[in-house]
Amino acid sequence: MSAESKKAHNFIQSLIEDAIAKGEHTGKVVTRFPPEPNGYLHIGHAKSICLNFGIAETFDGVCTLRFDDTNPEKESQEYIDAIKQDVHWLGYEWAGEVRYASDYFDAIYDFAVELIERGKAYVCALTADQMAEYRGTLKEPGQNSPYRDRPVDENLKLFRDMRDGKFQNGELVLRAKIDMASPNINMRDPILYRIRYADHHQTGDKWCIYPMYDFTHPISDAMEGITHSLCTLEFEDHRPLYDWVLENISAPCQPRQIEFARLNLNYTITSKRKLRRLVDEGFVDGWNDPRMPTISGLRRRGYTPDSIRTFCDMIGVNKAGGTVDMGMLEHAIREDLNTRAPRAMCVMRPLKVTLTNYPEDKTETLVLPVHPQNPDMGEREVTWTRTLFIDREDFAEEPPRKWKRLAPDQAVRLRGGYVMTCREVIRDDSGEIVELKCEYDPNTLGVNPEGYKPNGVVHWVSATDSIETDINQYDRLFNHESPDSDKETDFVESINPDSLVVLKGARVEKSLATPRTDLPYQFEREGYFFCDQELTAAAGRPVFNRTVTLRDSWGKGK
């Protein structure tokens, strides 16, 4: 067992170890990650991916990737491709070829016929409204369908006719015959098949009837020889139905289902239906918008696979529900990037500085470390010129108490460069400050000045030897800790109006003319920022997305 596996020890691992020790489980451990291809994966799926692949790795087993594709009206190849990319990006390789539940449609149909022949399933003609009425409530038992006692031969003929396209959408369904008085509503004669005239992304127009997810899922697990079917807690009430299905057909095996708590993250929505609404109604710029909790959105924002796997390890796996603080996810990416991210300077809101005592025709090349704590990452060059840019927020004409930046007749050190003192403030006709006239101290490169003390350190870039860029300052998409908790309020009303602030005309060091695209930069004193390849190509100049601030400042003022 690897050190990493020991670190991630959880109750599921303990259950498997106990079963092995008692001889209840022998042979290889086989898990699977079974997404429905009806949307993009989100951070909650990342937890499931890490768990399923991690358990397989711990016990020298295998983990497969299977798409539970039972609803062609909501599924597409786009989602399949995106899911495969996300799993690979997180660092996992599935065993063998990608599987699809649709690979087993012929076998699933045959199992349905087997249930009919055993008197365990029947064709029902109740409408959806009637079926809901017959189902009963949590306090009252349901009623048997008037079609429940059809003869087997009649059910077989109707089911074949359904398959052969002799009925319309919704006209008939195939239902399991279990118990309409069961306290578990999932066991009250659930639907196994429905009619859907829709082309399937894998099987085309071969089928006009499709098995329900709750019928397909356990059969697919059994067909693949899955030993441990790991599901989130919302499937706990479905387990009796899964067991009933496998016990009443000639299934090749019966996987052990173990449920764990799903990931609930505050300030976040993880319902695919609601995420799709954000996309479809234009609240965000697609599934991979950096504000989305999708894996592709996190990737585009600059999150790393290591940080997400670390986060999943931090939150652990348990049976108890609860909500995880978004700060834990942000902490994971800060910890990762603090040691690995190259440093650079970016002036978000440029304010021109002219060094009046620096020669107009002179420049200097200053050498700064790529990472101050990691000399192996090398050095970078920045150009010192007569005209520079500093950030507008680093100057105050009337500085507040304990001000540690530039002010009239006060000095600051420019990061890695000289000390300068502000001598004059230049305004335009509207009264806006457009330039600072400063004097630099030529004796302060790498040494402290004599006779006075700088009022702090600010970052800068050369006005003539820097690159124009755009900055997307992303923040949390919602300003409510639980955006969908109030059933009387539409969750979109909690969208944070400041979740995206676009800064045009920022300036970065010349070394970022062709920025790296594998890892964010730490823009000194500002945060971590990742080059957006898609937006960069469209803009013709670098565009950076803020991954995360340097420290957690949510709700404390930025």
UniProtKB/TrEMBL annotation:
Q: Which UniProt keywords apply?
A: Aminoacyl-tRNA synthetase, ATP-binding, Cytoplasm, Ligase, Nucleotide-binding, Protein biosynthesis
Its UniProt entry gives the catalysed reaction(s) as: tRNA(Gln) + L-glutamine + ATP = L-glutaminyl-tRNA(Gln) + AMP + diphosphate
- Quote the record's binding site residues for L-glutamine: D68, Y213
tRNA synthetases class I (E and Q) anti-codon binding domain boundaries: 457-532
Q: What GO molecular function terms would the record report?
A: ligase activity
| PROSITE patterns documented for this protein | AA_TRNA_LIGASE_I
Task: Tell me where on the tree of life, at the top rank, the source sits.
Answer: Bacteria
Q: Where is the Glutamyl/glutaminyl-tRNA synthetase class Ib catalytic domain?
A: 28-338
Query: Is Lipid biosynthesis there in the keyword field?
Result: no
Q: Which CDD domains match?
A: GlnRS_core
Location of motif 'KMSKS' region in this chain is 269-273
> Where would I look for the motif 'HIGH' region in this sequence?
35-45
Q: Where in the cell is it found?
A: Cytoplasm
Write down the NCBIfam families for this protein, in alphabetical order.
glnS, PRK14703.1
This protein's assembly is summarised as:
Monomer.
Protein family per UniProt: Belongs to the class-I aminoacyl-tRNA synthetase family.
The identity of this protein, by name, is: Glutamine--tRNA ligase
Q: Which organism is it from?
A: Marinobacter azerbaijanicus
